Amino acid sequence: LRSKLLNIGSAFSRPDARVVFNCTGNSSKDLPGVEDSKRYPTRGQIVLAKAAHVQKNIMRHGRNYKTYIIPRPWSNGNVVLGGYMQKGVGTSDTFAYETESILQRTSALQVSSELTEAEPEVLASFSGLRPSREGGARVELVELIVDGQTRVLVHNYGASGTGFQAGYGIALEAVEAIEDVLQGIAQNHTGAKLRRFDINSS
């Protein structure tokens, strides 16, 4: 079920909606009812290349950038070359000079001699905005009064560039936060089922 919401309270428009998970990411700064001023974008750019001979993950951190080589499993030899980490930059455009910088930096890594064994075939460049947040990810339960009834909202966003690594863990934390709520619903409504409600505020 997908719906465009005017505000976070609209997610409770269904009478059987007791709990809503707010996973709106970058939209959490502007979504009425959330409007998290601590949320900010962190822009990244990567290069997708074919280099089947590369087998190792390699990373080096720098100011406003990360240099890394990450083979993609079961992708017919594709690797991700990165990258950039630009705090507060809100454009998702890709730039040729950044692609060139990524190729130069990944080739120059001392431990990445295997990358230069054969020239990688550049397939595409991508950029995106990571949903970052001052103080780290927000996993928080709050109660709202909707049409005179108490409803539960669980915020779960702001993992920035660690979403792939940390996403499963913070999702478990968000679910654990409502265990008592779910038990109460089950006790009051025999056979009650959870329904999924995806928030699309764009």
Describe how the helices and strands are arranged.
Elements: E1 2-4, E2 19-22, E3 39-50, E4 58-62, E5 65-71, E6 78-84, E7 86-87, H1 96-108, E8 121-133, E9 138-146, E10 149-157, H2 163-176, H3 179-188, E11 198-200
Parallel strand pairs: 1-11, 2-10
Antiparallel strand pairs: 3-6, 3-7, 3-8, 4-5, 5-6, 9-10
Q: What would your notes on this structure say?
A:
This protein has 202 residues and is an alpha+beta fold. The protein has two domains: 2-38 and 134-200, 3-Layer(aba) Sandwich (Rossmann fold); 40-132, D-Amino Acid Oxidase, Chain A, domain 2 (2-Layer Sandwich), CATH 3.30.9.10. Helix content is 18%, strand content 37%. The protein contains three helices and eleven strands. The strands form three sheets. Strands 3, 4, 5, 6, 7 and 8 form a six-stranded antiparallel β-sheet that branches. Strand 4 and strand 5 (65-71) form a beta hairpin. Its cofactor is FAD. This is FAD dependent oxidoreductase domain-containing protein. One of its GO terms (molecular function) is D-amino-acid oxidase activity.
Summarize the structure.
Strand 9 (138-146) and strand 10 form a beta hairpin.
Give the tags.
alpha+beta; 3 helices; D-Amino Acid Oxidase, Chain A, domain 2; three-stranded mixed beta sheet; Rossmann fold; 2 domains; 202 residues
Using only C-alpha atoms, the radius of gyration works out to: 21 Å
Major sheet summary line: 6 strands, antiparallel
Q: What is the CATH superfamily classification of the largest domain?
A: NAD(P)-binding Rossmann-like Domain
CATH architecture of the largest domain: 3-Layer(aba) Sandwich
Derived structural class:
alpha+beta
Span from first to last CA? 15 Å
Instruction: Determine the fraction of residues in helical runs and give it as a percent range.
Output: 10-25%
Q: Kindly identify the CATH topology of the largest domain.
A: Rossmann fold
Sketch the topology as an H/E string, one letter per element: EEEEEEEHEEEHHE
Low-confidence stretches: 194-202
Provide the residue-averaged pLDDT: 86
Shape category: elongated
Beta-sheet strand percentage? 35-45%
Main CATH class of the largest domain: Alpha Beta
Q: How many helical stretches? A: 3
- The number of distinct β-strands equals 11
Total domain modules = 2
